[in-house]
Design a protein that fits this description.
400 residues, alpha+beta, Butyryl-CoA Dehydrogenase, subunit A, domain 2, Butyryl-CoA Dehydrogenase, subunit A, domain 3, 3 domains, four-stranded antiparallel beta sheet, 48% helix, binds flavin-adenine dinucleotide
């Protein structure tokens, strides 16, 4: 928490209401509304004034969110999920005053969409082993390499880039984080098509891309510490988003099972699974509350990883269950999604299969379930660490 004004919960609510009066939600451009929200210090109330906050206790953020939800206010996350969920919190924690003043406002309003450039063709789980090089050249850095699975890169104006600045030290020690201008010469973005039919992520090629040193986040060689902030926020953010959907999926599971019974399809095994899925949806909600409490105290920890693991695995099982209940029509929808033929007029395309296909990505994005189980085992349960054969070896000497 930073120095700011003191404000009672009532005064804070009054501030939210004044914002909504000034920018009526039904008639204002959502991005104008979000800019005004940032200027009113209601983006993240615990941040410093001028940085989208008021320097208040972080627990008051929940009050702002629930009042704005009551008013149906636009959600910044919908316009810029990676910016809001991951790169914004990273800039707030590690950015210079100049970076915060240049980047946070357009990030929050969604006028500037952000991407996160960590994964590469040969490194995802082992992101600290990445090979994209940044070499110092006067006041700039010159970057060469390739990133992959970069969500939203095709529409992003900025990206948070992790690159290797020193290959002669162990892998975690030789990384540095940068703000990348996605429109800079030498940045080429190539969309990748997913099995859902959408193309939300991309390959990004970086050839002789110049980044001014003023866009370096943190010290040279401090990239892993910065990346850890991003990854912890990512897991919390993904887990939180999936958790919201999970509550709906829990209800959908019961509705779908009831509908099957109404059709005369009584199946005790499915009944057990429906109830189990409903219970798990509610348990996930409790994990989410615990994770949110840790994050609000400014200490996002392994709870975020536990939440992401639980909700991602849940989403997959619930999607399997719903597709099983749907039977053959599920295949029709799968084929529609993949090939996009014209369906007969009036024929509805249920979302179940699309959710089934997308749920495969849930246990991969933001850290696979296996990696999250390692974190859970090591940091929460205190089990012996995973085998690490490259520990202490200079990155240059690690076989690739
Ligand atoms: C929808 C989606 C969006 C994404 N968006 C982004 C993005 O915006 N930016 C970005 O940088 N990346 C993004 N990613 C990439 C994502 O972070 C990686 O895919 C993920 O970390 C896994 O890395 P990988 O694909 O290289 O698999 P690998 O690391 O090669 O893993 C392959 C398999 O081996 C297992 N494995 C690996 N190491 C271990 C170990 N030590 N112990 C046990 N099992 C292990 C994994 O669990 C997995 O099953 C996205 C991925 C998806 C699916």
């Amino acid at each position: 928490m930073t120095e700011g004004i003191s404000m009672s919960p009532e005064e804070l609510i009054g501030r939210v209401d004044a914002l909504v009066r000034q920018y009526p939600i039904e008639t204002s451009d959502p991005r104008d509304f979000l800019e005004a929200r940032f200027d009113a210090g209601l983006a993240w109330v615990w941040a410093a004034p001028g940085e989208g906050g008021l320097g208040l206790d972080s627990t008051l953020q929940a009050l702002v969110e629930s009042r704005l939800a009551e008013k149906n206010a636009p959600l910044p996350f919908s316009y810029n999920p990676i910016g809001i969920g991951m790169t914004g919190p990273t800039l707030l924690a590690h950015g210079t005053a100049q970076q915060k003043s240049a980047y946070l406002r357009p990030l929050f309003s969604g006028r500037e969409v952000w991407s996160q450039l960590f994964s590469e063709p040969s490194v995802g789980s082992d992101v600290a082993g990445l090979a994209t090089r940044a070499r110092r050249d006067g006041d700039d850095w010159v970057v060469d390499g390739q990133k992959v699975w970069t969500s939203w890169a095709h529409i992003a104006g900025r990206g948070l880039l992790l690159a290797r600045t020193d290959p002669d030290v162990p892998k975690h020690a030789g990384l540095t984080a940068f703000v990348l201008d996605m429109t800079a010469p030498g940045v080429e973005v190539r969309p990748l098509r997913q099995m859902t039919g959408e193309a939300e992520f991309n390959e990004v090629y970086l050839v002789n891309v110049r980044i001014p040193d003023s866009d370096r986040i943190g010290e040279v060689g401090e990239g892993w510490r910065i990346a850890t902030t991003t990854l912890m926020n990512e897991r919390f953010s993904l887990g939180g988003t999936m958790k919201r959907d999970t509550a709906e999926v829990g209800a959908e599971v019961l509705d779908a099972y009831r509908a099957a019974v109404d059709r005369g399809d009584h199946n005790p095994v499915r009944r057990d699974e429906a109830v189990r899925l409903w219970i798990e949806a509610n348990v996930n909600n409790l994990i989410a509350e615990r994770s949110a409490a840790a994050t609000n105290r400014g200490r996002p920890g392994p709870e975020g990883s536990v939440l992401k693991l639980a909700t991602a695995e849940y989403r997959k099982r619930a999607a399997n269950f719903l597709v099983d209940l749907l039977g053959a029509p599920a295949m029709l929808v799968a084929s529609y999604r993949m090939n996009r033929p014209r369906l007969p007029l009036g024929q509805e395309v249920p979302e179940t299969t699309s959710a089934f296909l997308r749920s495969r990505a849930n246990t991969i994005e933001g850290g696979t379930s296996e990696i999250l189980r390692n974190i859970l085992g090591e940091r929460v349960l205190g089990l012996p660490g995973d085998l690490r054969v490259d520990k202490g070896i200079p990155w240059r000497d690690i076989p690739r």
